[in-house]
Specification:
The protein is mainly α. It has three domains: 185 residues, Growth Hormone, Chain: A (Up-down Bundle); 57 residues; 181 residues, MFS general substrate transporter like domains (Growth Hormone, Chain: A). 71% of the residues lie in helices and 0% in strands. The longest helix is centred in the N-terminal third of the chain and has 29 residues. It is globular, with a radius of gyration of 23 Å.
């Protein structure tokens, strides 16, 4: 008789489970599930490839709309005779996308990935159409906020669907592809925005989203039914979600207005800081008492998730801060033209993708996979320190910036996969949404704090190095599922 057989003739309702069996059941319910124990995916390699391509196209849309609008803003301001509100065209998108990232991540764990990807892309398309036909600036700003709701939902859902398809051991290899999407959007966005605004019409920067979104849905939805299902229906803690979003919006407004619209020590900014702290404490208090909290505090605790989130946030913050501030640095210090300054950003974007590819390949084969990120972040911190302390000719600066970018890029696959590998499969969407939420906050803070461009980058990468050292290196679930992208 094995330990799972009935031990007596008493009715099942009278006899409780033995403690050992009860403990095992709790572990199954709460622990991360190794993909070796999961049923094999019915998807063929071609189907997986199709889904990954559609996910990259979807992510490209969300990434593109963070950059494509910038170069068209002067044209939009002239048409609507309103230049004072132009910053809100970008801020409305960033505020909305940051606030809803954890919401879509959590809802994908409750209602499934298919429903949430349809909802996110639908909001994105509707917002894009309203932006394109906006008759005035207030309508455009509101439509950008709606578009941001969809764009903010796209990022965590894409990363969560990838986790449903690919085992953690091989998942890092795909980070290079998606890092490449960010590079293409970061470089191509301002160029496309300028071309559309100058030679066609600024509304084209929004109309282009419609066919691309429909194409992404057309590729993705027919295959979604075959993707393994890991979500679990439960009650939605709407109050917790509202408190978290409200806190995020106030923080983002402080970072947007502080030092620009209001002085940092003005009563308005200080009051908003107090409000954000109060909302954050209210969220923590509620999460500690709710039966099924929107974002369980235990989920972002432990020895993996908080360190990985902070390391990835620091790396992304350094990258975003440099991307925003380097063009002005090039123009002032090296007297480059605007187009030359844009070209000089390519090492930062492109070589970080190579770093992500190296880290991803390492994760597929090495037992101590985090070492590549520790070395990479340490080298990036040293390169950033050298850039901050020494005046260099342009070629030497670009060499050091390339070293910095290569090291920085190793952080992203290690942190994303480590976070998703550390939680139960039915919580991957929630923790991925939380990761995107904190990364967006750090990026906004980095943009505000980058008065000393390279010094700030060095400090952030030093912090990332320390976090990677402190992070527990849990074995990655496997076996590896090798699905090669088409050449």
């Amino acid at each position: 008789m094995n330990k799972f057989e009935r031990q007596s003739r008493q009715p099942a309702g009278i006899k409780t489970l033995p403690k050992t069996i009860a403990a095992e059941l709790r572990d199954v319910a709460s622990g991360a599930i190794d993909v070796r124990d999961a049923p094999p995916s019915p998807l063929t390699p071609d189907e997986v490839r199709t889904i990954l391509i559609s996910l990259m196209l979807t992510m490209f849309l969300a990434a593109l709309d963070q950059t494509i609008v910038a170069t068209a803003l002067p044209t939009i301001g002239r048409q609507f005779h309103d230049v004072t509100s132009l910053s809100w065209v970008i801020s409305a998108y960033l505020l909305a996308s940051t606030a809803v990232a954890p919401v879509f991540g959590t809802l994908s764990d409750i209602y499934g990935r298919r429903a949430m990807v349809i909802a996110a892309l639908s909001l994105f398309v509707i917002g894009s159409i309203l932006c394109a036909v906006a008759p005035n600036m207030p309508v455009l700003i509101l439509a950008r906020g709606l578009q941001g709701l969809g764009g903010g939902g796209i990022m965590p859902i894409v990363q969560t669907v990838i986790s449903d398809l690919i085992s953690p051991r091989e998942r890092g290899q795909y980070q290079a592809y998606f890092s490449g999407v960010w590079v293409a959007a970061g470089i191509g966005g301002p160029i496309l925005g300028g071309v559309f605004a100058e030679h066609l019409h600024w509304s084209m920067i929004f109309w282009i989203n419609v066919p691309l979104s429909l194409a992404a849905l057309g590729l993705l939805l027919p295959k979604m039914g075959k993707i393994p299902v890991f979500h679990r229906r439960r009650k939605v803690d709407w109050l917790g979600g509202v408190l978290l979003m409200a806190s995020a919006v106030v923080v983002m407004l402080v970072l947007t207005w502080g030092g620009n619209r209001y002085l940092w020590l003005s009563p308005t900014i200080i009051s908003m800081m107090g409000a954000s702290v109060a909302l954050a404490f209210a969220f923590v208090w509620h999460a500690g008492r709710a039966e099924e909290p929107f974002l369980p505090l235990s989920l972002i605790g432990g020895r993996v998730v908080p360190y990985a989130i902070l390391a990835g946030s620091c790396a992304l913050g350094a990258m975003v801060g440099l991307t925003v501030h380097l063009p002005l640095y090039y123009e002032v210090v090296y007297h480059l033209s605007a187009s030359e300054a844009g070209l000089a950003l390519i090492p930062l974007a492109a070589i970080s993708t190579a770093g992500a590819a190296i880290a991803g390949r390492t994760m597929a084969h090495a037992k101590h996979y985090k070492r590549v990120a520790i070395v990479g972040d340490a080298c990036a911190a040293l390169a950033g320190m050298a850039l901050a302390l020494v005046s260099l000719p342009l070629w030497a600066l670009l060499v050091l910036l390339s070293i910095f970018s290569l090291g920085l890029g190793t952080t992203f696959p290690v942190t994303v996969v480590s976070i998703q590998n550390a939680v139960a499969r039915w919580q991957v969407g929630t923790v991925t949404g939380a990761m995107n939420f904190f990364r967006a906050l750090m990026s906004s803070f980095a943009i505000t704090a980058f008065s000393y461009v390279f010094g700030a980058a060095a400090v952030l990468l030093a912090c990332a190095t320390l976090c990677m050292i402190l992070m527990e290196e849990k074995p990655l679930a496997g076996p590896a599922t090798r699905v090669e992208m088409a050449e």
